[in-house]
Amino acid sequence: MPQKSKSKTKSSVFSMYKQVEVDDFTGFVLQTRRIAADPGTMKSNHRVISNVRHPYYEVAYAETPDEIRTHWHYLKSHLPKLLPADLPVVEREQWIINHIASLADGKSDDLKKEDSDEDASVTRSYRGAEVQDDAEEIQADFNGPRRLDRLTQARQNSGEYFDKDQWVSHQLLLRVDDYTTPRKLNVFIGTWNLNGKKFSRDSCSNLNLWLLPSGTESADIYVIGFQEIVDLTPGNILVDVDACKPWEDAIGETLMRAPTKRYQRIASTHLVGLGLIVFVSKDIAGNIRGLSTSKVGVGFLGVGGNKGAVGVRFDMFGSSLCLVNSHLAAHVHDVTGRNADFLQICKKMVFNKEEELTRTDRVIRVISEELNEESKYQRKISDHDAIIWLGDLNYRLDLADLKKVYDRIALQDWTYLLTKDQLVLEKKASRCFKYFQEGQVTFGPTYKFRPGTNDYEQFDKKARCPAWCDRIQWVGSDLQQLWYRRTDELLVSDHKPVSALFRFQARVVVEQKKTQVIADLKKLPNAARVPTIELSCVNLAFPCLNFAQPVSRTVTITNSSEVCVQFSFDGRLIGTSRKRCPKWLEIVPQSGLIYPYKTQDVVFTINITTAEDIMTGKDPLDSSLILRLAGAADRLLQLKAKFANTSFGCSLEFLNNLAKPVSTYSTAELAQIQSETTQQLVIPKEVHSLLDFLSTNELNPNLFAGEVSQADIQTIAKALDSGVPLAKSRCPVATVAATLVDFVQNLRSPLLPNTIPVWEGEAMNLDSWCKMALLCLPPSNYQLFLYLVAFLREFIRSHKPDVDQLSTVWGRALTQSDPEGTFSGIQTRSPMQLTKQFLASPTLL
After folding, report:
1. In 193-232, which positions are buried (b, 16+ CB within 10 angstroms) versus exposed (e)?
2. pLDDT tens for residues 350-371?
3. Distance of CA 33 to CAs 270, 362, 674, Å?
4. Residue 437 and residue 424: Cα distance in Å, rounded?
5. Is CB count within 10 Å lower at the N or C end of the chain?
């Protein structure tokens, strides 16, 4: 068959992946109903479905939601590009039938592992950009009033616990202590990546050391998650084969050795290499109900099971528990892919009462979800009292120096290594697991070991750094972690198992008390249900804002009613086009609950670190904030602010068009300058002033090594912005040097951007790569970079400073990143090392 170029293939795949024709879906639904009515018809006569545009019957006869999704996406996006160009139309249906059959048998040659990995990476980047903008919206369901609302709605929909009156249901959640008694349960959580190793009795001989550690309390619930139970080959990715059963049996046999309890399995679900198994003690098994499982593939083509998650949820006494086991994107540089996988799982994983659905309804429901239609069967991960997320999350260490990593491991310096841990860093930046907690990590990295030993693989050809890939995260005020550990005695894999024990305080509903609480709530007149508040002020004034100098104002909200007030600031500013809270504004807390006659202080902080759009009026400061109140009218707060024009936090292109000091321009003039494409200057005049001052004064080797106060830097910044000559300001030389570093580090985008081509390792001399990287820089970046490097090389030649220390300072400034982390696609070089190459290589410039 004719082969298309890779780039063209990817483009066609993802354009079709994004588009789903509604009329196709309608025809599919109608035909599915016909097939479901008479299943034998389809198998005996393919012509029954000849009026449907594509052979959807493979989807109709898939057994699980994941199979439905996989076939649906495959048909919609991948198969059309594989059809032979010269194939007659009448033969296309049979060709697709045969192709899907070969896929089901794992015999298709159209999908090679290297292609699937490459396509998956491109797909993940596409999806990452798609969902990252919604990261805050997706994660908001795990916190505050939004979480309370979802719990209320979930329990109302279940019809088991709560009243039909939404206000009464909401108040019942707030007064849960009035009609429940606590029941403390121990929950054991374990996760282990098996690295595709086949099951054997030897591999599980020490399971008791993991599941039944000596000296610990016995568990009421066991939750075990596996990853890579099978190799992630193309055949296994598309065909979900249950390889979890032997491990499930081995766990059951191990738990039979528990000294005080007897257990029974209540749930087991799998997706390719993922498996999740739940055992509970027999004395509480009768209190489990509402059990449901779910699975989401986010790997190949966005649905492949090589990466994804499986989940189990159930109600226990009066509380709900959700358990998610995931395997996220691999490779140290693919942090964005891991974040995207997490967000996609949060967005797509839903739990349903599968036993209540017919085959036809199940197919229609799953495809409806893929078309983003509302589905009455959905319960999301966030719709639970307690959530525990385990698995190989695959977050790595942002450290390129392997020797330093192994030295720190030898010292058991986990505190330092965790400051470079991608999961810790991404959580701080609110890009993933924002509202999840994790216990203190007191054990070494769980990956990468030499199988059969407790030694790290220090001679790995790919130079993979040890990392805490295997983690346990949780959400829920009723959860308390008792311990968190790694088990070293299991040696079969290159990962070590991780486990944690939780104390879960389940709520046992006392029906008589709940009935009385509901009756009391219903006696309240309707007027008493409306919350009322008082605000200490409605005008927030920030009369004098400067670059990178945060200023805060506090507003006190007083609940003057007899009911709880649920409030939230959605961050949107009236009078602007923004749909989310701007980066320069922080609201703490952004949402919350105020009990009757209590108060809540809300702190508003403005910190401007990107000044260009503020000064040009593109991102106006003056606007109105919406304070939303559940069950009452919204309130408005007026935001009034004035920002002092500055050259800090602007783009090079913008700065190169400023012929005079920035403080002398009006907003309209700056907006006009921002729209211009030609540039008047080669480098910003501010940089020229700073370097000219340094070049005409006596310097010392420690010029860039000393500590300088931010107030001193602000003094020089004001002189630059107002056009006052630095010679007249009597500035200390060290302060001018620190201002130069600060100016470069606060450019709107890094001087050395992440778009620089990947270094090809030993196949390319590092000097050659540096020269190629220079040629790839935008013109403005190129000119300024050469200007700075020329100054620094002359400084090194004349004053003999510590080059490593100088490279660390400027590596951070030039790349706006951690100087010891990895840079762009160069996994074996840090910004400090690359900067040192530019500054000290005798053959480079």
Report:
1. bbbbbebeeebbebbbebbbeeeeeebbbbbbbbbbbbbb
2. 987 544 444 444 444 444 444 4
3. 28, 11, 59
4. 11
5. N
